[in-house]
Amino acid sequence: MSMHYVSNINDIDKKKGLLLIDASLQAYNAFSEKAPAQCQTDKIIPPVGYDFVDSWTGIDSLFNKDKTVECYGVIFRSKTAPYTYIFAFRGTSSLLDILDDLGAESTIFTPYDSQSTPVPTTLTVESGFFDVYSEANGSTPSMQNQLFSLIDVYNRSEKPISQLYITGHSLGAALCELFTLDVALSRPDIIASNYNYASPRVGNSDFVTFYGEQSAQKNTATRTLRIQNTYDKVPCVPLEDMGYQHLSSAFLIAFYEESRFGIEKFNLLARHSALNYQAVLTCAANNHSGICENKKLEVPANDYAVTSQQPDQHSICKTF
Asked: For 207-225, how does the pLDDT look when each residue is reduced to its tens digit (9 = 90+)?
């Protein structure tokens, strides 16, 4: 499938792009390594115009052999009707530690609703991502079950879902793509869209094709948009040689951390940081050109600056 790249933030819904990177960062804020199963609601700052309403957990079957229960996402609802809900999935820096192992195993995708549109038998997704999404543990239901239970509760309430925004960064981006497809199949009446950040490849070519077909049936121009730093390694795995492909629409940015000597620094975490994604997107949104070009873009929360430049689609996954 051919890729569709844009690099001018004025060519996308930049307001949504900034809103959803903020929501993705709040999903990180809700997690504490000291109490991983408890979402830290006092650490969450809802995006302007939204209230925090819920959170959910998942089973860490990708990074932890003990399959611990962890806080994996947060939900925001617009303050006024018609109600927009944001489901934001948490990522993890641990993903950088297992990049070379991703994609070794794949599995079939099973939607929440068994009566939904049949999934092609040839469609597969990365097994680690799907395990986090679908595994239960004792009395803790799977993330998948929790998410659809919450959707059904909202739609039975006085504040039903008018529009659903789905987002996430890193591992959260992979999980939110699985959820977005699941919503299209299992709750097709819901109007949903997805902006995600730094997503790895999630499934094979049949996953990409089938996912696109669900978007087309809803007559949406771009139901899912990947936002990718061309210097970020995470979107380069699992490898295409292993049969994995990206969803076709992407907004490209380009940034990295430089050393004091002006030499490109091999700081993979800096190239993947959600805070740096947010800083570059904000810079682009405030620039008349729609592109962030700044040799020393300060990111106070990360205590260092990054170099941001016009992205080149031909350099994707070639410069590390």
From this structure: 999 999 987 666 554 489 9
Residue 177 lies in a domain: yes
Domain of residue 226 covers: 4-255
**Whole-model pTM?**
0.96
Q: How far is CA 312 from the centre of its chain?
A: 22
Q: Are 84 and 78 in contact (CB under 8 A)?
A: yes
- What values do phi and psi take at 126, rounded to 5? -65, 130
The answer to whether the CB of 274 falls within 8 A of the CB of 25 is: yes
Please give the structure tokens belonging to residue 99.
């990049």
